[in-house]
Amino acid sequence: MTRYNTRGGILGLTPGENKERDLHWHDASTGTDLSPDGHTLLFNEGGEAAGDDASVYLRGTDGSAAVKLGKGHGAGLSPDGKWVLAIPYGDPAPLVLLPTGAGEPKMLPGNQIHHLHDQVNLLGARWFPDGKRVLFTASEPGHAARCYVQDIAGGDPKPVTPEGVVGVLLTPDGTLVTAADRDGRVALYPIDGGERREIPGVEPAGAPSGYVPIQWSTDGRLLYVYRPDDLPVRVFRIDTVTGRKEVWRELVPADLAGVFSVSPVLITPDGSSYAYSVSRELSDLYLVEGLK
Question: Which one, out of 114, 183, 206, 282, has a CA that is 20 to 30 A from the CA of 123?
Fold first, then answer.
């Protein structure tokens, strides 16, 4: 007889430190966003401790206690740190803004949109740099997934990419989204309409050797990418002007026992801090005699 134990944890390098810190909370922690200064981690907890549905948590990367904000999938921390954009469970279900301090949750109009989240496949939701709008991936009945923009002050979601083009990583100025088409080809798509722009040096995300974009540098020139199926995971930094690519860092836990995934990876725009999630499955084998 075999007993399996699957767990999820988070490791990260916090500001001013030279050694990674264990940032997990319960038994199935998955990081979803990291504040630009590297001091605050947004994560989901989906194991036994979370109950029937996953819960959204926020904690300081200094190791301070985590604070539970609500149910759902925590997708993004607002630029001012006062709100968390969350995707609730249900189909369809509107996006929810969860306050990080005192206050009540706010629901955004959703119509019949089905929200999608899977960071490895470029699905999810993020804030615009101005903190007034959100970008998310979703699908409407009879249509393929695409990117939508919604004003948090009100109004219905508006599609901004062709059907089949998904992604939520915005450029620092918020004018372009880094998204992939049905063939996994990553390019820049203007939020306000226009022709897509190619990114030199980025192989298709859907290919075996393809890259998943993680973060833009503060000046918008360097793009951080990785291959989620690699172990250890190598994070590359691509100069989008010259196409030059270099290894930025290798990420892997010191204890590799049972590790089958190192993903997703979160990086601050200045590259000084990061956090990555680790999925691990351990098993025990038993010999049982005298069964009847």
Answer: 282
> Could you state, in order of their start, the residue ranges of all structural domains in the chain?
2-284
Q: Which residue has the higher pLDDT, 89 or 119?
A: 89
Q: In one letter, which amino acid is 281?
A: E
3 state DSSP class of 49: helix
In Å, the largest CA–CA distance within the chain is: 72
The answer to whether domain 2-284 has CATH 2.120.10.30 is yes
- Report CA torsion sign: 217, 220, 226, 228: positive
- Cis preceding-peptide flag for 172 (omega within 30 of 0): no
Highest mean pLDDT among 45-49, 165-169, 228-232: 165-169
Residues 6+ apart with CB under 8 A from 234: 226, 227, 247, 249, 250, 251
* Residues 36, 77, 87: CA angle, nearest 5 degrees: 145
Pairing of strands 245-251, 233-239: antiparallel
Judge contact between 134 and 76, C-beta under 8 A: yes
Whether the model clears a pTM of 0.70, i.e. scores above it, the answer is: yes
